[in-house]
Every structure is written in C-alpha cells, then in structure tokens.
C-alpha cells in the first residue's frame, strides 16, 4: 500500500512539449525514473513455530493520496480493518510494504517505529468513541493528549486544542466535559479533533459513522470532506456501508475475503461495478434505482455454488457465491487494469454484466 501525502504532480501539457529541464547547449536531461511501486500487502496472524498462520489479507495494492478520500468497503471478515491496522503497525505485514511518502514504514522497528507513532503523522480514528475515549479525561485533555505524546510543550497545546475544537465544529465551552456528558455525535467529533490536532498526513477512519444517527452521520462525513481539503489530508474511510461512502469518497476499493476485488474512481465503481460482489453491494445500498436493486436480487438469490472446485483456496475468492462462476473461476483471477484507474479481479469482467439485462 502506498500513501502519497504530497500533492500529485500536475498532468503534463497536452501540446507535446516536454517538461524535462534542459542543459544549456546540450540535450534534454531526463528526470530519474520513479521508484518501483511496493509489492502488494499481505497480513497474517499467529505466525509461531509449529503453528500455521492465518492469512487475513493477501496481495492488496492501494494508494492513499493527499486531499483525497479513499473509501474501503467490504463485509465483516473482508480484511478492511486489518488493512488499516497494518498501516499503523497494529497488524503484522508478512508480505509487501506500506510506504509513506516513499518511506517503507513496514520495515521500521524499535525507536524509529515509536517516533513515527508519536509524531501523529498517521492517525487512526476508532469506530466506537465511547470505548476509545478515556471516560475520566476532559475533552481538552483528550485532544491535548496526542500533542503531549508528540512532545508539544504545554503552553503551545491549549491554542491548538481550541483550534481543533473549532475545526470540528464544537464549542469551546465543552472543553471541560468528560465523554459521558457528550452526545454520540459530539464524542465522534472529539475523536476527530484528537485525530487532526497533530496535523497528520494520513487519517484512517474505521467505520466513523456506523454508530451515529442519520443527522450526525451526515455531519461527520461533511466534516471529513472539509478537513481533507483544508488540511490537504489523505483520508481512508473504512465502511461496510457503500451509501456512506457515496457522497465523499474520490476512490473506492472493495475487499472480499482478504483480497482486493475492485478499485477505481467512486462514481464509476458505484455506477458501473465490474465485479459481481461490488454490484451486490451497490444494489443493496438504500436509495438506489430499481434496475440496480434487481441486479442485487439476482446476485443475492443465486445461493451457494455446488462445484467443490469453486470452494478451494485456489479458486476465485467469490466463486462460492457467484452466479457467473464457470470452469475458469477454479483459478483465482489477479487484479487487472481496466483503464481510467480501475482494476478488477474477475475472469468474466465486464462480460457478466450482459447477463443482468436478461
Ligand atoms: S472470477 Fe468468476 S467466480 Fe469470480 S467473480 Fe468473476 S465470474 Fe464470479
């Protein structure tokens, strides 16, 4: 997984002119080639002598970019939370690398890893603020805590705490309250203030709105949307609900069974899914057109597939549920580029979509 927290370079001019710097009197100097992308990420738990590890994430290749929201969607067990935990060093990466602005953070150990964590450059926003916030600390102490860990001197903390409160739309009069005296929406905004107070480059938000009512959900999503622009922040939002990503994600990555099955620009992934599992998710999201709901009904109603060869580890990870599975699907498809920044891991993409029309 690559995290690029600097702005993407502007596209080259379409006039055919070169942007390479030139040497006076000499030929154009070629820029150095970009570094090769890191290999796809794998995560396994329980690697001990004499005991088989449980592989929970395999071959995941994603990029989070500054100022963008990357939505990661999948059901329970898909590996989406593991992916986020691996980025902050809470889950063991056994293959591939996670790079942060070109720096391999998977290789960091000891002091270097502690320094990265303390710096607050990468922040993790937990799903349940009631459990993640210390009930005995005040709002002001909770938001100041990451600054203290990062080594910010006490006098400099207070104005930054107040600024963070303002950034998330909370009144300064709440600074002395404990989490138990806040509403659910206010607690989640305190979590967000805690996450952004260190001016991170990457924010991982794990199901940030799943515990909130509709009004607070929209409020927190709008905040995330605003803050990524204001702070030029790379935001990764993890969710099981495609609907909550639809309004803010620039790109969407779909995980199933620990594998990346599809990714691409949000609008295209939602409007024209290339993987049957994505189509099922898109069709199940509330408030969608009728034709998409009928596609979901077809995919949902297909039931388990009988062929035992489609249930092996060598088969496509979705084969046991897929109504379009055939002999080819006994071997696992690798993610393939589809143009326009999209990739999909399906032998039948996009041809399977024609069957939806019948
Ligand atoms: S590869 Fe085959 S089983 Fe897997 S999603 Fe595509 S059609 Fe379905």
TrEMBL record:
<dbReference type="Pfam" id="PF00005">
    <property type="entry name" value="ABC_tran"/>
</dbReference>
<dbReference type="InterPro" id="IPR003439">
    <property type="entry name" value="ABC_transporter-like_ATP-bd"/>
</dbReference>
<comment type="similarity">
    <text>Belongs to the ABC transporter superfamily.</text>
</comment>
<feature type="compositionally biased region" description="Pro residues">
    <location>
        <begin position="29"/>
        <end position="41"/>
    </location>
</feature>
<keyword id="KW-0067">ATP-binding</keyword>
<dbReference type="InterPro" id="IPR027417">
    <property type="entry name" value="P-loop_NTPase"/>
</dbReference>
<dbReference type="InterPro" id="IPR017871">
    <property type="entry name" value="ABC_transporter-like_CS"/>
</dbReference>
<keyword id="KW-0547">Nucleotide-binding</keyword>
<feature type="domain" description="ABC transporter">
    <location>
        <begin position="41"/>
        <end position="282"/>
    </location>
</feature>
<keyword id="KW-0813">Transport</keyword>
<protein>
    <recommendedName>
        <fullName>ABC transporter domain-containing protein</fullName>
    </recommendedName>
</protein>
<dbReference type="Pfam" id="PF08352">
    <property type="entry name" value="oligo_HPY"/>
</dbReference>
<dbReference type="InterPro" id="IPR003593">
    <property type="entry name" value="AAA+_ATPase"/>
</dbReference>
<dbReference type="InterPro" id="IPR050319">
    <property type="entry name" value="ABC_transp_ATP-bind"/>
</dbReference>
<feature type="region of interest" description="Disordered">
    <location>
        <begin position="1"/>
        <end position="46"/>
    </location>
</feature>
<dbReference type="InterPro" id="IPR013563">
    <property type="entry name" value="Oligopep_ABC_C"/>
</dbReference>
<feature type="compositionally biased region" description="Low complexity">
    <location>
        <begin position="1"/>
        <end position="28"/>
    </location>
</feature>
């Amino acid at each position: 997984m690559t995290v690029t927290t600097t702005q993407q370079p502007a596209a080259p001019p379409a006039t055919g002119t070169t942007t390479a710097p030139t040497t006076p009197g000499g030929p154009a100097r070629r820029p150095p080639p970009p570094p090769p992308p890191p290999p796809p990420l794998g995560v396994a738990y329980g690697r001990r002598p004499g005991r088989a590890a449980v592989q929970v994430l395999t071959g995941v290749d994603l990029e989070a970019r500054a100022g963008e929201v990357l939505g990661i969607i999948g059901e329970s067990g898909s590996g989406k939370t593991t992916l986020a935990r691996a980025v902050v060093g809470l889950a063991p990466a056994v293959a591939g690398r996670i790079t942060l602005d070109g720096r391999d953070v998977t290789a960091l150990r000891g002091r270097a890893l502690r320094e990265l964590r303390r710096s607050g450059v990468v922040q993790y926003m937990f799903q349940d603020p009631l459990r993640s916030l210390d009930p005995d600390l005040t709002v002001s102490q909770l938001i100041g805590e990451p600054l203290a860990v990062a080594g910010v001197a006490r006098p400099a903390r207070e104005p930054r705490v107040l600024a963070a409160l303002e950034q998330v739309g909370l009144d300064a009069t709440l600074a002395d309250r404990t989490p138990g005296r806040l509403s659910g929406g206010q607690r989640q905004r305190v979590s967000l203030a805690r996450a952004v107070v260190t001016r991170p480059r990457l924010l991982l938000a794990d199901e940030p709105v799943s515990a909130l009512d509709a009004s607070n959900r929209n409020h927190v999503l709008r905040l995330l949307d605003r803050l990524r622009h204001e702070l030029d922040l790379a935001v990764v939002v993890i969710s099981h609900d495609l609907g909550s990503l639809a309004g803010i994600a620039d790109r969407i990555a779909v995980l199933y069974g620990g594998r990346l099955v599809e990714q691409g620009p949000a609008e295209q992934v939602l409007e024209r899914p290339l993987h049957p599992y994505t189509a099922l998710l898109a069709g199940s999201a509330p408030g969608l057109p009728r034709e998409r709901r009928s596609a979901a009904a077809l995919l949902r109603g297909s039931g388990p597939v009988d062929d035992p060869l489609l249930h092996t580890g060598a088969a496509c990870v979705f084969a046991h549920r897929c109504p379009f599975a055939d002999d080819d699907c006994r071997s696992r498809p690798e993610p393939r580029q589809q143009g326009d920044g999209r990739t999909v891991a399906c032998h039948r993409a996009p041809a399977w979509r024609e069957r939806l029309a019948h």
